[in-house]
Amino acid sequence: xxxxxxxxTLLLLSTTGFSQDMNSRKKEYLLENGVAIEGYDPxxxxxxxxxxxxxxxxxxxxxxxxxxxxNNNLIAFKKNPENYExxxxxxxxxxxxxxGEKVEVDPQTFKIVNGKLYLFYHTFFSNTLTDWNKDxxxxxxxxxxxxxxxxxx
Length: 153
Hints:
Layout: H1 2-28, E1 31-32, E2 35-36, E3 54-61, E4 64-68, H2 71-79, H3 93-98, E5 106-113, E6 116-120, H4 128-134, H5 136-150
Antiparallel strand pairs: 1-2, 3-4, 5-6
């Protein structure tokens, strides 16, 4: 009886911890109407053609909802989500590296580096991708360290 009680307790604790992790991810990620990357398909970036996803191809990974342009991209994401999720929760990579701040992005302004998706703030007067490219290695190291402050691992 003690063993059954212990197993049930462990299961409840692990489920509660996982739920808390998902909730913290939701709080830290850039979501618009509950969807990541303003509804853009994360897989499409790796074909160098960012596309809006469709609601009928939505998928939730660890509490974060992504939408996909087609079923093939959805399947690719499901096989290995970590390959396609944007870095720093979808916030501007440059701002995360330069100031440790969460800044919204233009989902059409991006860069793939070492198989990772980075998104950037871009308006008529400012394109942070240009600034990122001037000191990418240093900014990426700083952004990695700053992001860890937001996501407790």
